[in-house]
Design brief:
The protein has about 45 residues and is mainly α. The protein is about 75% helix and about 0% strand. It has one domain. The protein is elongated and about 55 Å long.
Amino acid sequence: MSTSSPQETDRPPTPIGFKLLVAMAVLYLGYRLAQGIIWLIERF
């Protein structure tokens, strides 16, 4: 017995360009978060 609904299996695969965009956004935001933490440490 499958727990997934039929709607979940009918979706087309996610485009590679979208996956790359999400990955780059995550990397960028992580980098900016690290910069902000370093800036706070140096300021106080």
